[in-house]
Amino acid sequence: MASKKKNVQTPQKQKLSKKTKRIIVVSTVITMAVLLIAGILLVLFDNGIIGNSEKYKKMAADRKTVATCNGFEIPYEELRFITDFYKKSLSHAYGEDIWDDPATAEQYRAELETLVMEHLNENYLVLSACRVLSIPIDSKDQKEYVNKEMARLKKEFGGDQKEMDKWIAEQGMTESYLRFSIGIEYLHSSIYYTLRDAEWYDFTIANIDNFMDFVYESPTYARTIHVFVENDEGEDVEDNRRRAQSMYDYLMAEPDAEAKEALMREYIGSSNNEDLLITKDGYYFTYGEMEKVYEDATFDLAIGEVSQVVETPDGFFIIMRLQPSMDYIMLNAQTLLSFYQSAAMDVYIEKYNDECKVELNEYGKSLDLLHLN
Question: Are the C-beta atoms of 312 and 293 separated by less than 8 Å?
C-alpha cells in the first residue's frame, strides 16, 4: 500500500496591530535609553563624580567662562593655570616670598596681570588665525593627535590613570585644559604647513641659497654669544645683578674688539656663564625667535659691540654681536630655515592681535589674580 502523507498545516504568519508595534518600538527605545544612562552613571561613579558633590562643583567652576577673545570663550581653569605659572615665574625672579606679603604682592600685581593677559591672548591668536585660514579647530585629525599624546603621557605613568591625574593636578592643570593645550600645539603646526603650501614664506628649500645670503648679510639677522647669570631659586637678585655688572665692567676695560671677544669666549662653558647650551658658534636668529628684550638689545648693536647688562625675569645677559660665519650657515642651513619660517609664522599670527583682545566678563572682573583657588 502506498503510504498516506499527513496533511501538515503551515501556521499563518501573525499580523501585528499598529498599537502592538508602537508598544514594541517604545519599549525598545526605553530599554536602550536605560542602558545608555546606566553606562554614563557607571563612568561617573568610576571617576568619583557621582557621590562626590565637591568634585562635581569644582569641575563646573573650572569650566565656567571668565572671559572671551574674538568670540572664543576662556574658562576659569585656563586663567588659574596661567596665573599660577606666572606667579611662580615672578617669585623665581624677585623672591620666593613676594606673594606672602600683601605689600610686595601689590607691588607686582600689575606685572602679573599683564603677563597673564598676554599669555591668554596667545592661544586665541592661534584660533583666530585658523579661522581666517579655514583650518578646522576640532577636526578628526586633531582629536586623534590629542588622544595619541594623552595615551603617550599615560604610558609614562605605567598606564595608571590615577597617577597621571595626580601629576596633572600637581601641575595646576585639569585634563580638559591639558587637552586644549595639546590641541593648540597641533593647530600651530597646521598653520605652519598651511602657509608653507600657500608659498607664503619668503624663503624655502627652493631658494635656500638666497636664504643663506640673507642670513650672512641682512641687518635683521644676527649672531651672538653671551654671558648669562641666572636667577636661581633662593638667590639674591641684586647680588646677581652686581655680578653681571662686574663682568660687564671687566669686558669694557678691554678696548680691543678681538680681545673682548676672546674674553667673552672664556666665559663659555665656565662657571660664570649659566647658559649650558651655548657653543662657540653662538646663536643665529632673526626677529621673533628669541626673547624680545634680548632681540632688542642685539639689534641695537653693531658687529663686535657688547650690550650693557640686559635684565630678564630669568636673569641677566651680557651680549656680543658677531659676524655670521658662512661655513656654519651652509652646514646648518635647513635648521636655520625652519627656525626662520617658524618666526615668520608667528609674525603672521600676530597680525590678528588687534582684533583678538581678552575681555573679562563680570565674573572674571570679580576675580583677584592674587587669590585664585
Answer: yes
